[in-house]
Amino acid sequence: MPKHGKKYNAAAEKVEKKLYAPMTAVKLVKELAPAKFDETVEVSVRLGVDTRKADQNVRGSISLPNGTGKSVRVAVFAEGAKAEEAKAAGADIVGSDDLVAEIQKGNLDFDAAIATPNMMAKVGRLGRILGPRGLMPNPKLGTVTMDVQKMVKELKAGRVEYRADRYGICHVPLGKVSFQPEQLVENYGALLTELLRVKPSSAKGKYVKSVTLSSTMGPGVKVDPAVTRDFMAE
Q: How far apart are CA 203 and CA 81, in angstroms?
């Protein structure tokens, strides 16, 4: 077990071994965030899926109602009119062969990437670089698209990706400690509703097994996974 500092241990002692309502959990996470910087609030949702089975891979993206509070740098692989559209929408980096060359040199100064479909033959050569970092444009996530303007704006506004890892756990940022509790709970409710919507039909038994909220440096707070509506109630 990793050793924690005094602040973390003191905060952890205030967390009871019980399941909290989402609103109560959010308020506790905010109260117990120990760092002097504006910590990220993250949720970890453990799903009853076997990700080794192709039909049980839970993956997608969602625009959180209140964003994440994070500044997102967006790169767009596009040419001509679509490149101009991306720039107008606020993309940080726009290019074609030149962008591919920069990435091959190791220059990856962006947090998300979009590509028009006709660019994917070129982008495909970057799979070994972009793939492990979760930056590869993907049609299922809406990041391979002709509507680059819409996707740039959504990513900038706080569109997040969710993906169940090999243990069936989705780790997703919900915002910052500085957010109002209502904003964080609204984001949480939107994510949980989306995860329930995409439940694989082949998943057996309990689907949402556990939910834990935490800040970057703070202890985990268990949330009652049975609460799937009336998220604002305490």
A: 44
Which residue is listed with tokens 């069936």?
A: 168
**% helix, strand, coil for the chain, step of 5:** 35, 20, 40
- In the block, tokens 């704006």 appear at 153
Distance CA 26, CA 13 (A): 17
Rounded to the nearest 10°, the torsion over CA 134, 135, 140, 142 is 140
Burial class (CB in 10 A: 0-12, 13-18, 19+), 226: exposed
Predicted pLDDT of residue 3: 62
DSSP-assigned beta bridge partners for residue 45? 170, 211
Entry pTM: 0.81
Write out the two tokens for 204.
Answer: 């057996």
Q: Which residues of 146-184 are buried (b: 16+ CB within 10 A; e: fewer)?
A: eebbebbbbbbebbbbbbbeeebbbebbbbbbebebebb
Cα separation of 210 and 115, whole Å?
Answer: 35
Describe the strand order of the beta sheet including 112-115 as a list of residue ranges.
93-95, 74-77, 112-115
Residue 30 has pLDDT above 60, yes or no: yes
Strand-by-strand arrangement of the 208-215 sheet: 169-176, 40-47, 208-215, 221-223
